[in-house]
Amino acid sequence: MKLEIAARQLEALGNPTRLRVYRALVRAGADGLPVGRLQARIGIAASTLSHHLKRLVEAGLVTRERQATTLLCRAHYPTMNALIGFLADECCADAGCARDGEDSAA
After folding, report:
1. CB-CB contact of 70 with 34 (8 Å)
2. Helix then strand then coil, % of the chain, to nearest 5
3. Which domain holds residue 74?
4. Any idea which UniProt keywords this protein has (predicted)?
5. SS3 15
6. Which run of H or E residues covers position 36?
7. 18-32 residues labelled b (16+ CB within 10 A) or e (exposed)
C-alpha cells in the first residue's frame, strides 16, 4: 500500500463522526446496513450522513449498493485489512536485538 493512500484513508477516519459511521458498518459485518438504519444508529441528519459516507466511499473504506429502494452500505474489509496491515507490517522492525533482550529478561 502506498503511503498517500494510507494517509487519505486515515484522514477520512480522523473525523469522529466518520469513525463512528465506519465502526458501525464494521460491526454490522458483511451484510452491512441500510442507510436509514445507519442514520438511526448514529443519530445524525441524512444530509450529514450522506456527506460522511461520500468521504468514506472516496477513500475506499465503504461500498454502497442500491437494492430496490434501499441503499445498503458496507465496510470494505479488504481495504480495512490492507490499512491495518500497512500500519502493523513493520512493527518493531528496527528494534532487533533490543526486543530479544526484553524477552530474555522476563
Report:
1. yes
2. 65, 15, 20
3. 3-91
4. DNA-binding, Transcription, Transcription regulation
5. coil
6. helix 35-42
7. beebbebbeebeeeb
* Residues 9 and 59 sit within 8 Å (Cβ to Cβ): yes
CB count in 10 Å sphere of residue 95: 11
- What's the first-to-final CA gap in the chain, in angstroms? 36
Cell of 11: 484522514
pLDDT tens string 31-77? 999 999 999 999 999 999 999 999 999 999 999 999 999 999 999 99
CATH number at residue 26: 1.10.10.10
Q: What's the pTM?
A: 0.84
Contacts of 48 (CB under 8 A, 6+ apart): 17
